[in-house]
Design goal:
2 helices, elongated, alpha+beta, three-stranded antiparallel beta sheet, 10 strands, five-stranded mixed beta barrel
């Protein structure tokens, strides 16, 4: 960022790059920004060299789009696709899950070092509810759930372990035993 108050720099030692030298006028032009940009670029290269799929990292949500959230892992941004935010919550927009500035723990899913892109996931840090679900809820077993949305052809039902199912009217039974 640009500093409007140059008095903040009085009596400070700064590493700068000479960007222009005019011997005839006895003039040097220095850039602190060029040094900071070089350091940032070196930090990015180092991080990209260290980062591997499967690692768990802390980051800060920097930007939210309809398709996911961009997270800064310390100089390199990665994308958590909306489908990788949560196993259990039906998320229509990433802003329902996180906000810009939030600290978030993520798992590195893919690293494209050539294009400097990272694919990140959050749900991968949690137990996959479908693995539990398949062992608890077998075909023809009966379970209670809460209807969370009615549709023309049936209802979306919230079941334990954060799993949602779809029930047609012939499969919906009220508490009193009558068909819904």
């Amino acid at each position: 960022f640009r500093s409007e108050n140059l008095a903040d720099y009085v009596d400070q030692k700064l590493v700068c790059v000479v960007t222009e030298a005019n011997e005839r006028r006895g003039n040097l032009v220095l850039s602190r920004r060029a040094v900071l940009e070089r350091e940032k670029e070196e930090s990015k290269k180092k991080l990209l060299g260290e980062i591997e799929p499967g690692q768990v990292r802390e980051g800060i949500v920097r930007k939210i789009q309809d398709f996911g959230a961009f997270v800064d892992l310390g100089g390199v941004d990665g994308l958590i696709h909306i489908s990788d935010l949560s196993w259990t919550k039906r998320i229509k927009h990433p802003s329902e899950f996180c906000n810009v500035g939030d600290d978030i723990e993520v798992m590195v899913l893919e690293v494209d070092k050539d294009n400097r892109r990272l694919s990140l996931g959050h749900k991968q840090l949690e137990e996959n509810p479908w693995e539990v679900f398949e062992s608890v809820f077998m075909v023809d077993s009966v379970h209670e759930g809460i209807i969370i949305e009615m549709m023309e052809k049936g209802a979306v039902v919230s079941l334990p372990y954060g799993v949602e199912g779809f029930a047609t009217p012939k499969h919906l039974i009220k508490e009193d035993g009558t068909q819904a």
